[in-house]
Amino acid sequence: MPTTIISSLLKRFLPLAITVAVVVWLYHHYGALTYTIENTKEFMRFVAEHIFLVVVSLAASVIVGVSLGTIMTRKGFEKTGPAIMALVNIWQSVPSLGVIALAYGFLPLLGLSGIGVLPALIALFFHAVAPIVRNTYAGIEAVSADVIESATGMGMTERQILMRIELPNALPVIMGGVRTSSAIIVGTAPLAFLIGGGGLGFLIFTGIALMDMGILISGAVPVALIAMIFDNLFGKLEKIVVSKGIQAEEYQTA
Amino acid sequence: MSVMLSFQEVTKIYPGAEHFKAVDSLTFDLNEGEICTLVGPSGCGKTTAMKMINRLISMTSGKILVDGQNADRMDTIELRRSIGYVIQNIGLFPNMTIAENIAIVPRLKGWDAGKISEKVESLLEMVNLPAEEFMNRYPKELSGGQQQRIGVARGMAADPPIMLMDEPFGAIDPINREHLQNEFLRIQEKVRKTIVFVTHDIDEAIKMGDKICLLRNGKLVQFDNPEKLLTEPANDFVRDFVGGDRTLKRLNLLKVKNAMQTDPPLIRALESLQTAKGKLSELKTDHLIVVDENGRLLGTVDPAALGKTGDKVAEVVQATQAHIQASASLKDGLSEIFSHDLGFVIAVDDAQKVVGTLTEKDIKALLRK
Predict the structure, then answer these.
(1) Which CATH architecture best describes the domain B257-368?
(2) From the list A144, A148, A244, which residue is nearest B138 (CB)?
């Protein structure tokens, strides 16, 4: 049916087409293109710094988040697990700017500089780790008790159960947490500029300060694009790493 | 037969419930190749007793010997890998394919890949699921009955001498359950595992068990084979538990061949009508069973038929549906007797050869014995 083909093409390419159109219009209308071309070298540095902030803080969030979430499900943490979860949830409600400000204000108390890349990374990490902790914990807790019992009864060690049963089955939920965290980090990363962390935030805040939409757009649009690319990448990664046996139905058509 | 599994004064007291022995001085021996059904009302300790074998639950006192070795002294992981485990809710691993699920224990034991895939295929064949169709599917794509078959295959994967089955067919609808039970018994004929089978259903316990271990409040009430449990219940509790219809239940256990008369009134199809009439009056019976040269069932003749004009019995024989396999249960035999007005059914073997006759009287006589 040609109509269904057209509608599926529309579904697939319409968002992309609209995005490209809006980006082109913004760049053209506000002269962001000219600004970007004239300052390519600096622009590329901001992009690199920005991606560095995102990748490093996200990697740290994943490592720490999955570990912490997993430890909370182990024996001996039955009571402390939910308590830690409650703390993590409260922590997550602190707004982005608040986290950046806290890093600036608190790190000197620990003898660290409140200015620069490291405080920015620390702030982003703390801001984004919560969803991963929460989803890892919830994902593992949700693995059916029957599955664990039969694994135990068949003679799998606790480590084997964790690595081959619990984590793989919790993976869709964990990946959901990682995607949320990546969205938080990409969205908060521009604020890193405020405490000397660099990145595309420089262009955004400079644009605001100078009331120059061209500079602002040349920072803001790449930030949005990076967010979209990351989310897309994680979506693809999820299809690859999550077992077909537990993927949601809609993924199976591929 | 050697003893494969031995419970010796096994007691379990759960922490926080010190006044109550969940399992109380349980002692019994199970021979190699036998199915022992642990049965009793809920809370009787049957599941606890079973889980102490592979040490999912630790015992408070006593000893369990697995093939002569004290289970408590064995390495837990090794012990569990040498015991097949099948549970009610199956617990297939959703992230793994059917083949991967079955291969779990062989893989843990470090079998080589070729041997594992060979085993997986033969097990799938054993449980009637074509390997090429099912191997690469995931548990969620299978029906409940198919999943439970995989559960059984997985439990047998590493050829454990002992299997523990915790209400394995409990979550399956009655029709499929009956089917799975029969299929499992057929498999057991071949593999001859020593099996501890937990169920709350006395009918299932009687059907599946070579031995029945009836528990109440953690105590062993009666340990016997099904026939004994039905005919000689140890006390009123057992009598009540097996139910008022325990005589009818015995019909399920006993076979047609146990009760039938083995001297059926036969007549060959090629004999003359005259001979047939003579035999009829000689045997003082209403019917003769007509067989061919090889003794296979052709039908019956009665006086009315013999009164017809004709030469040979073959010309007047009346076909009959009133026959049954000698290996069928007496319950089916009785049902056949009631559904035909012959007054008896003809017992035949696998080759349709007539081996006996069965009447209500024969059944009564056997049940009273």
Answers:
(1) Roll (3.10)
(2) A244
